[in-house]
Design a protein that fits this description.
452 residues, alpha+beta, TATA-Binding Protein, Nuclear Transport Factor 2, Chain: A, 22% strand
Length: 452
């Protein structure tokens, strides 16, 4: 009996064993295939990065080599610098460097890209490169050579020693290990050198992009945690049983207060952030569960406008709207003498089950809000309209103050209309008649901006 049973089971077990071995082999092959593909992608990104940084150095040299009055070549050269720097940034993002300190080098490349872009988009025939900008280009030429040489040295080691990027991932994953890896050491060296570069004059348009908002930009007196509790009580309209206030960034230029309130009866949790100078509300969130959508966009917008009016945000105009699940987010900008002030914007989040405001993001408004001396338009509305596409079907027009490509506040005519089957806002400079910005409107945006 046992012989007959074993005679039946033995072939079956043999088949199972062969099958499991084959399956394991297939899994191993697939895993190796994935690892090889990942390794090839990392190698390609690294070698492309080395090539593009070398090309960036050469392009900066070419731009400096021509006559100082060659505006057309300066523009071409700066556009190429921007393109090459953007390529290099993209390749850095493809490498497994998320756990490796390479922030300084990435930030340096980002500033080069922004400097090149913002310089090239202006009219160089009217505003050629300044002496300071030539000095900046010379500095970038010298520093990019250092980075290029370091990357080339790393590239030679990678090729000669057959170094693998998958080993970098493993080394970075072992947080407690000393990370003794040639590639990791090479990138650390590059980043350290960049961090030691002397301060570079990037110009006001680029510097403003990296300017951090501090309490020195605000007016008013410094407030305490007790003052914030009073502000929270005023905001809610009732005296909460408990308000917890925490100071953020104590003793720094970026200090603020975070307040949290929990209703013991309903369990409702509210969170708010206030500036330390002036005690201005910059963020609010009600984390309650939101029910099924019951109100439409018009009622939600009316609720958002009422919320802003009740909490001291006066003369605001809704300009865009987004929906996510059962909430709607309206972007508002302030107005001054009928002019839309786009730098002063904020967002109100409304629950679509009952129209209650459950969120506010007002950083831009708080830090940019002030009385402005608005310029007078040099062009008439009719003259500005000549810059529009003849097929553009105008629906609405108004004056707006926006930030142009250079980060400068610019008074424009804002024309809203339809062309090529889509709705757009087109901003025409009220002084030069040049198109400063164009944005496509969604159907929700169109309905929002037309509800006045």
């Amino acid at each position: 009996m046992y012989k007959r049973l074993s005679a039946v089971l033995f072939p079956i077990m043999t088949l199972f064993l062969i099958g499991s071995v084959y399956w394991g082999y297939q899994e191993h092959q697939e895993k190796n295939s994935i690892l090889i593909k990942a390794e090839n992608q990392y190698q390609r990104a690294f070698h492309d990065l080395t090539y593009h940084v070398e090309q960036l150095h050469q392009q900066l040299g070419n731009t400096l080599a021509v006559n100082s009055t060659s505006q057309s070549y300066h523009r071409k050269g700066l556009v190429n610098v921007w393109r090459l720097t953007s390529e290099a940034q993209n390749e850095i993002n493809q490498l497994p460097l998320t756990m490796l300190p390479f922030n300084e080098a990435e930030d340096f490349l980002s500033r080069i890209a922004n400097f090149a872009y913002k310089t090239s988009v202006r009219d160089l025939s009217k505003q050629p490169l300044s002496e300071d900008e030539f000095k900046t280009l010379k500095t970038l030429y010298a520093k990019s050579e250092d980075i290029s040489k370091d990357l080339s040295t790393m590239q030679e080691k990678v090729l000669s020693d057959h170094l693998r990027w998958m080993d970098v991932e493993v080394a970075l994953a072992k947080q407690n290990s000393p990370n003794d890896n040639t590639i990791i050491d090479g990138f650390k060296t590059v980043d350290k050198k960049v961090s030691e570069y002397p301060e570079i004059n990037w110009g006001p348009s680029v510097a403003s992009m990296y300017q951090k908002r501090s309490i020195s930009m605000l007016s008013g007196k410094m407030v305490t945690a007790d003052d914030v509790k009073k502000h929270v009580t005023e905001f809610l309209g009732t005296q909460p049983s408990q308000i917890r206030v925490v100071e953020n960034g104590k003793g720094t230029e970026y200090s603020s207060y975070s307040a949290s309130v929990t209703d013991p009866k309903s369990g409702k949790k509210l969170q708010m952030d206030y500036t330390q100078r002036g005690g201005k509300l910059i963020w609010f969130m009600d984390s309650r569960d939101i029910g099924e959508k019951k109100i439409d966009q018009n009622k939600a917008q009316a609720a958002a406008e009422k919320f802003l009016d009740e909490h001291g945000f006066k003369d605001m105009r809704a300009v865009s709207y987004n929906m996510f699940e059962n909430t709607g987010a309206f972007t508002f900008v302030s107005t001054q003498n009928g002019v839309l002030i786009y730098p002063e914007k904020l967002t109100v989040k409304v629950a679509l089950d009952n129209g209650e405001a459950v969120g506010l993001q007002a950083n831009d408004y708080v830090y940019e809000h002030h009385k402005r001396s608005l310029p007078t338009a040099k062009l008439s509305k009719a003259e500005a309209r000549k810059a529009l596409n003849p097929e553009f079907k105008l629906a609405n027009d108004q004056m707006a103050l926006i930030l142009n490509e250079m980060g400068e506040e610019t008074l424009c005519y804002e024309f809203t209309g339809r062309v090529n089957g889509s709705d757009y806002r087109i901003y025409i400079n009220s002084e030069t008649g040049v198109e400063e910005a164009i944005e496509e409107l969604s159907p929700l945006d169109k309905q929002t901006s037309s509800a006045k």
